[in-house]
Amino acid sequence: MVKLNHHYAKLSGGYLFQEVARKVAAFRDKHPEASLIDLIDLGIGDITSPLPPTIVQALESASREMGSRETFKGYPPSQGYLFLREAIVENDYKNLLISPDEVFISDGAKNDIANIQELFSIDNRIAVPNPTYPVYIDTNVMAGRTKLPLKNGGYGGVTYLACTEKNGFSPELPNRSCDLIYLCSPNNPTGTAMDRQTLQKWVNYARENKAIILFDGAYEAYIRSPDCPRSIYEIEGAHEVAIEFRSFSKTAGFTGLRCSYTIIPHALKITERGTIHSLHALWKRRHETKSNGVSYPVQKAAAAVYSKAGAHEVKKLIDSYLQGAMSLKNNLEKKQYKVVGGVDAPYLWLKAPGTLTSWQFFELLLEKAHIISTPGIGFGSAGEGYVRLSAFGHQLEEGALRLTRL
Amino acid sequence: MVKLNHHYAKLSGGYLFQEVARKVAAFRDKHPEASLIDLIDLGIGDITSPLPPTIVQALESASREMGSRETFKGYPPSQGYLFLREAIVENDYKNLLISPDEVFISDGAKNDIANIQELFSIDNRIAVPNPTYPVYIDTNVMAGRTKLPLKNGGYGGVTYLACTEKNGFSPELPNRSCDLIYLCSPNNPTGTAMDRQTLQKWVNYARENKAIILFDGAYEAYIRSPDCPRSIYEIEGAHEVAIEFRSFSKTAGFTGLRCSYTIIPHALKITERGTIHSLHALWKRRHETKSNGVSYPVQKAAAAVYSKAGAHEVKKLIDSYLQGAMSLKNNLEKKQYKVVGGVDAPYLWLKAPGTLTSWQFFELLLEKAHIISTPGIGFGSAGEGYVRLSAFGHQLEEGALRLTRL
Predict the structure, then answer these.
(1) Residue closest to B127 by CA, chosen among B83, B169, B160, B101
(2) For A4, which of B68, B119, B249 is closest by C-beta distance?
(3) Partners of residue A180 in chain B, C-beta under 8 Å
(4) Residue A387 carries which DSSP code?
(5) CA B292, B294, B300 angle in degrees (round to 5)?
(6) Interface pTM (ipTM) of the complex?
(7) Model pTM?
(8) What's the farthest any 2 CA atoms get from each other in chain A?
(9) pLDDT tens per residue, range A341-350
């Protein structure tokens, strides 16, 4: 008789963004006039601007190549085409001692972040920022690396690193030993980036505790503060303790194309009972066994991000999102809203007025201002009393106006 | 201190196709004149003909849509675009009582086949054909669902279903209860398809033993024997016990594009301690949490496979591979080679002469006939003494000639 993976039953609620979508759909159902209401979506974690022309051209041209016998490509190399891995190293990791062989191309940072935990025993203790991207926790719950759900929405057996007003929304070192540490900079949802000193502290912690840092840099292209590194490998000693995840989704508008990459340095070794294991080798084996790589046209499109024209167009795209974030932030601060983020990230972390909970504030924004936001509690218990606003939305000025009139 | 998933250490050898590639590279290194030798690759499990024009056009046109604000698409729906799921149901599952909501689009049947085991407890006993596609076993080894490797290349705790000359290369019912049963029809590597009666026997077994059939139909489009079903759902009672995996890779030349789909009927329920669980709901939750779906241009290209022109072009493509397989088979049989497959599949399963092992025959073919094959032993112990030849290769006539001259 077949038996289920009972860890799935521990998962509380649905996946956050699907929950929000269901609530918005319910709002529309409740309001037959809803099609007349101009809903402003600041809940969106998705790109809204079209792909830049240089990238579209690369996609089209590679699509045509697939139609001719001379240039047709079958299965991609499981680790990704060398032309893309070389472009990544030359552009994103210049002087950071990363080789193309340490780059793994995949079809989404979400997938890699979800799958990386498979390399580790379920006996490891994970540490995650609170609030944070729900995928870190949910995938560990599914694997059985946590205990039962707690009343506050968290799970037993997990070390939560509270990011609050008090500590400037920066995760602090835990007072016990943890094995797998998820860090995200700039953090989703708070929009705050970690500075060099803080990251060095974490790398030192990992080295002392023989822990691994799983560093999510999906939003690195938005970092503007000179003191905030874009890559964990700017930090001394990181090559021996950190895996870095990056994506073309938010940096080049690829949410609808699906391309990302993960860096696992050869220096990342784990010694168990006298045997030295390479995490790179384990991930490579997983990659070869469980995936057939990323489509050729999409990898060509990703490589075009590093061409002179592509890089220029992509920078313009990110600048425009950041300008929107800054302007939204300024408008809200003028009206005494408490808000962080929006400087090194496309996200703003907005405190609910008075004693409103996240979902109450979410409902208020939806009902009264016709603004869609993302409830902070969906990212963890320390997100209670906050919502995330996204600069990927349209009509940011109008959104700010409506918020200040609430 | 971080601890590894020690199950990875049980994996024997590398992933088969990477091993073959390494041996071929070594052959070329050993022969400085190798560039002059006309190697014929019949080991290839990859499409070699270019994408049909209708599909390329769909890909190009969708790529252009991504460049304009009005038609740009961000994150795809996690289960896939409805236009594609509807086309699949209307064309591939007509009268088979499958709804679009039961279709999950993903970027590779390999990925889904590798990931599906996550839904189940590690305490389940798996049954796999022998020989078969290595991914079934390897992913269960990684998850800890098997015991240690055996001397014959298999793993303890697994029920192997021998497919031999004696039983017509058709897996027979095990004499003990198994929980997760992998079936592949037409089977990779033997190229033999299961008939209706055999499949009904398996569905009955699954119903009696409360087991789940994981049915790999990646090569269904090659089936020509009228008595061999293309879908497990042609069999009565299958909706309650079977998950089906399909792919555009081999049926429409998508190995370089990456698109596949998995069917999980709502009728597939598991009752545990009085609670009824839906496998559809579990997979949906996994899909939402660990993936962001398949790129829009690729899904448009897949939908074009079902257009009138696309379907015609794709049929021509498959017919041409099948013609190659048939001709290769006829030529080999004329020379008293023992060979099966090649009728309902692009693969031929060729018996080595005398007492040669798979790898010995592989080496002989490489050294003496300059033909690349795939050693049968790489697919399981019952594959010893065979090699797989693929009709995806070029120069099949010349290949047959060289084989008959050996």
Answers:
(1) B160
(2) B119
(3) 2
(4) E
(5) 145
(6) 0.95
(7) 0.96
(8) 69
(9) 999 999 999 9
